[in-house]
Amino acid sequence: MPQINQLPEVFASQLFWLAVFFGLVFFVIGRGMVPKIRSTTVSRQDKISDDLAKAQAARAAADETEAAWRVRTDTARADAARIAQQAKQESAREAEVRIKQALDEIDANVDRARARIRASVQASRAEIEAVAAEAAQQMVEQLIGVKIDSKDAKEAVSAEFESASNRPRVASMVS
Q: What DSSP state is assigned to residue 167?
């Protein structure tokens, strides 16, 4: 068979072209493209490393900024709480002063009212005693026909009022 007889010649030729092709591929890819790919990979790796270092530096700066912010915030909160506490104390003092003034005014008004009531009670009592003394004079004169001196009638009515004021009241006994 002639095809089998040609096999060693074709095989040697194919091996030659295979070696030429792989050599060409080796020099084109191995010597031309691989160094470019390697340099791109190295530069990319360097850029990633630089970016990671910058990110770490930025994170550290952010952490420092956050810590400083937290300190400022805590200080501001403490100051605000202190100011609020001082305001509460000042407000309480002012309210206490106003309440004391109001109570003093109320006490003064009560004292004035009590004085007016005492004066009214005394005036009413004097008026009642005068009316009672006059009525007692007229009753004694009509009942027994004796004219009593107004001074004696007033003394008798006064004595009766005094003894009546010393007796316990029924209303106070009931309650």
A: S
